[in-house]
Amino acid sequence: MNNELIIFDTTLRDGEQSPGASMTRDEKLRIARQLERMRVNVIEAGFAAASNGDFESVRSIAETIKTSTVCSLARANENDIRRAGEAIAPAVSGRIHTFIATSPIHMEKKLRMSPDQVVEQAVKAIGWAKEYTGDIEFSAEDAGRSELDFLCRIFEAVIRAGATTINVPDTVGYNLPQQFAHTIDQLIERVPGADKVVWSVHCHNDLGLAVANSLAAVQAGARQVECTINGLGERAGNAALEEIVMTVRTRRDIFDCDTRIDTTQIVPASKLVSGITGFPVQPNKAIVGANAFSHESGIHQDGVLKHRETYEIMRAEDVGWGANKLVLGKHSGRNAFRSRLEELGIAIASEAHLNTAFARFKELADKKHEIFDEDLQALMSDEAVTPAVEHFRLLSSCFHSETGETPRAKLTLSVGGQEAKAESEGSGPVDAAFKAIEQVAASGTELLLYSVNAITTGTDAQGEVTVRLARNGKVVNGQGADTDIVVASAKAYLNALNKLHSNVDKLNPQGRGV
């Protein structure tokens, strides 16, 4: 049996289906570069047929990534598959991932197709995909609730038609580990041609079992796991890449396979995805949480000091903790700044873009003595460095908060290039700032989330604010960072408004997948 476990990352596709997690093309490229640096085998770059914006994102990633396979999802219809094929065409290594539902409830209620029609459509889809690539993955959507005999039938048909990877998704997170392992074991044993394909799993976390189910499937013979950074994904999310990789790596006594992942890139990837999407990582999250390698108990501390392995089964530095060092300050030059951004996988589109970013870096360095990688990530995630999408921009601000007095905010904004002033009271300075902005913007949005996180330690740390706004079914996240948390809040609100105002074709991605 193959002893390499293939890591198929779907952060840019399934992860983006989290409400508010949609990303710009440039943000997707940054994450894709980090995934390549981490040596991910397959990057599912998006759903090319979902929108023109998604098509362009997939194509840009296909043009950029050289050492990972770039994949596009496609429903089992001709239009989807041809769009996917066109999008991955520039890739050094490209894959089409096509799917159709196979559970009785999906076939009857959603597809309104008979089992015979579903098999026929799946075979046709493989034929269309073969016109573009020899690397074809087939997924049986809702396989976790499908009949085993029917799964055997459809998988035999698509393998005969030319599929090279067979994915078994637990689309709604319904399975238990022993049950899911039995399904994989039976499929590998019963499906003719099973030895000619890679068996894959894609588990959702509705019952908190995505990682457990995936690992049980690996023990049963699966050799590809579909997962996301930080477990990002719709509803309760997907199997977390970092947990899959480190479990297999740590428990080599149990697993007869391993991944090619550079684990020192895991924490940087986690922080990048968290910063771009605005989804903070909980402190007690395995591997990448801030407390994952912290010890409060005196007994634990004593044990670790005497011998690390008494309470640590992994080394923090092996997953990237402690790797980020102070590299820049107020005296650093443009070349050092550019070089560090490149090391972090942040692309600079032009000299003008670099000049704008460097000026903002200098402003930050005047406020904050120590500049960490996390500060640079936050600075570059702020879309103030891309003036083309800034319909709303903060020019100046004045906030007043005093015991016994009603907080006030006075803002000067640029709106479509025209200066506008607004002043408002609120229950606090942040509330007053948001109300002042709305006096000018009149956006008609609903505030779904307001979240504040400290980017680094110390009283001079930048505060990173996430604001989630909804309007007419579109949900977007805005981010802002500043050493003044009220200014960061105003920036985040304006950033979200800019995303809603922009002509990006897909602000909130498709809601269906595997």
TrEMBL record:
InterPro entries: 2-IPM_HCS-like (IPR050073), 2-isopropylmalate_synth_dimer (IPR013709), AIPM/Hcit_synth_CS (IPR002034), Aldolase_TIM (IPR013785), LeuA/HCS_post-cat (IPR054691), LeuA_allosteric_dom_sf (IPR036230), LeuA_bact_synth (IPR005671), PYR_CT (IPR000891). One of its GO terms (cellular component) is cytosol. It catalyses: 3-methyl-2-oxobutanoate + acetyl-CoA + H2O = (2S)-2-isopropylmalate + CoA + H(+). It is an enzyme of class 2 (transferase). Mn(2+) binds at D14, H202, H204, N238. Homodimer. This is 2-isopropylmalate synthase. The lineage of its organism: Bacteria, Pseudomonadati, Pseudomonadota, Betaproteobacteria, Rhodocyclales.
